[in-house]
Design goal:
single chain, 4 helices, 3 strands
Length: 79
């Protein structure tokens, strides 16, 4: 666990946040005394609702042109 003072934390906040995202914990000190401990937030993963995905797919209309045809048309229009 790394320790930084308030001035260093303010000056290098982006770098410190990147290190925290990578799993490191950082303690911020004021006048040599620990004030706060920063660590990454554990995001809860929600299960995939396959029934909702199937419902969404069923409501979507079929494409009139294939993806390949669409890409070719866009390329031809640009050049």
């Amino acid at each position: 666990m790394k320790s930084v003072n308030v001035a260093e934390a303010k000056a290098h906040l982006s770098t410190i946040l990147t290190r925290i995202e990578e799993g490191e914990e950082v303690v911020i000190t004021r006048r040599g005394h620990p004030v706060a401990r920063l660590s990454s937030v554990q995001r809860r993963r929600q299960p995939i609702d396959f029934a909702a995905l199937d419902s969404l797919r069923a409501r979507q209309r079929a494409a009139k042109t294939s993806t390949i045809q669409l890409i070719r048309r866009i390329r031809e229009e640009r050049y």
